[in-house]
Amino acid sequence: xxxxxxxxxxxxxxxxxxxxxxxxxxxxxxxxxxxxxxxxxxxxxxxxxxxxxxxxxxxxxxxxxxxxxxxxxxxxxxxxxxxxxxxxxxxxxxxxxxxxxxxxxxxxxxxxxxxxxxxxxxxxxxxxxxxxxxxxxxxxxxxxxxxxxxxxxxxxxxxxxxxxxxxxxxxxxxxxxxxxxxxxxxxxxxxxxxxxxxxxxxxxxxxxxxxxxxxxxxxxxxxxxxxxxxxxxxxxxxxxxxxxxxxxxxxxxxxxxxxxxxxxxxxxxxxxxxxxxxxxxxxxxxxxxxxxxxxxxxxxxxxxxxxxxxxxxxxxxxxxxxxxxxxxxxxxxxxxxxxxxxxxxxxxxxxxxxxxxxxxxxxxxxxxxxxxxxxxxxxxxxxxxxxxxxxxxxxxxxxxxxxxxxxxxxxxxxxxxxxxxxxxxxxxxxxxxxxxxxxxxxxxxxxxxxxxxxxxxxxxxxxxxxxxxxxxxxxxxxxxxxxxxxxxxxxxxx
Length: 494
Description:
By secondary structure, the chain is an alpha/beta fold. The chain has 14 helices and 20 strands. It has helices at about 5-15, 35-50, 90-100, 125-140, 140-155, 160-165, 170-185, 190-200, 205-215, 225-235, 250-260, 405-410, 455-475, 485-494; strands at about 30-35, 55-60, 70-75, 75-80, 85, 110-115, 120, 240, 260-275, 280-285, 290-295, 300, 315, 330-340, 355-360, 370-375, 390-400, 410-425, 440, 445. The strands form four sheets. Strands 1, 2, 9, 10, 11, 12, 13, 19 and 20 form a nine-stranded mixed beta sheet that branches. Strands 7-6-15-16-17-14-18 form a seven-stranded mixed beta sheet. Strands 3-4 form a two-stranded antiparallel sheet. Strand 6 (about 110-115) and strand 7 (about 120) form a beta hairpin. Helix 2 (about 35-50) runs parallel beside helix 13 (about 455-475). The protein starts with a helix and ends with a helix.
C-alpha cells in the first residue's frame, strides 16, 4: 500500500523550516590570537556559551598574561604594570572568585602631586584634613569631579545587566549608545579637560590633579577623550585592589580552566576559505618548530591591529581588512631597587619623607610621569612597607628610558634597574574613529575597545561582549544584538 500523502510531505516541509538554534551544532574549533587578559577571558566566555566540546586554540608569542607581567627583585615578584583593579570591576571579581584566587591585602601609603619644584598637593593620614586641603586649593571642583565620574559609572554599570541577559553589540558605538546615548559617543570625541571645565571644575584643578592622574594611568595629557578619562579617574578616586600572587594569575587560571590549547607562536596572517557554504578561517603562524597553520570556524583577534603593534595580514577577504589608523603611546617602566633621593623632592632628611606614591603635573622639565614604592605580589601577614631611608623597590613610569643622570636625580644609589618598554595605551589624539568589532562573518576584533578606554575591566567587558556576539550571530539570535531601549527590555524580563 502506498504511504499516505502526509507521510511524504512532512519530511519535505521539515527540510524547508529553519533549524532551531538549540539543534544547530556549535563551532568545532575557535582560534584566539593573544593570551593576555582579553584573549584568556574571551576564551573563558566562549566556552561558557558554546560548551566544553569546542576546541579552543590560543596563540601567544610571548608569555601568558601580556601586559599583566611581573619582574623579580631579590627573589620577590612585583607587578611591572596594570597593578590596580577598581572595586566595581565585576568581571574581574568573578574571575578571582571562580579561580579560587584572593584579593591582595592593601598596604596603605600616602600620595602627592609633584610639579618639578614642589608638591602642589599632599595627602595626609586624616580624611577630613585631605578634604579641607582640596577645598582650600580648588573650591568644590573635587565634588563636581566626583559627581561627574559617578554619573558616568552609574550608566556604565548597565553593561552587566545587559550581558547577564545575553545582549551583545556589533560595534563599540552601539555598545556606548546603549549605555549613555549620544552623550557617551560624544565623550569619545571631546577631551576630558573640556568636559570637566563644562561642569564647573576649575582650570587649576585640571592642571594639578587631573593631569597628574592621566599621566600616571595613560602617560598622556588632559586632552585624552572624556570617556577614557572618566574610567581612569574612577580608578583613581575609588577603592582598588590587586590579585594575591600577581594579576597575571587570572590569565593563566582562565586558560587552564577552559583547557585551552596554548600555541606558542606568532600569528602572521588569517586567510578566508569556505566549507559547505560557511566561512572557514586559516590561521598562519610561526613558532620554534617553523611555520604552521590550522583551520577554524571562528577567530577572535585580541592583539592590536595597528602597524606599530602587529604585522600580520588578512588574505582573500573582500572588501580587504586593513590595519586601522592610530598610534600607541610609548611607555617605559623602570623597577629600581635602591635608596630614594628625597632631597630632590624637598626633604633633605629621608626619614621625614612621607609619600609612597608620587604623581606629576604636565611640566616639560619633568622626565617621569609617576613613581611609587611598590609591594611584592605576595604579602605576608607581617609585611611592612619599606621606610624612605631604607632600600626599597620603586616603579618609575616614563615615556623614555631613564638615563644615568635621571636615575641619579631620583635615587642616591641603587642595586638594580629592570626596564620594560612597550606601547601600552592608544595615543588618543592620533585618531577620532573607533575600530570595528566584526571584521567578517565569524572573525572578531576584541582589542579595539582600548580606543574607548584602556583598563582591565574594559577589556573583560569587551571579551564578554565578543563572546555573546559570536554566540548570537552563530545561532542567528538577532533579537539579542544591537537592541534599542535595553533598560526597558531588561526590566520586563525580570
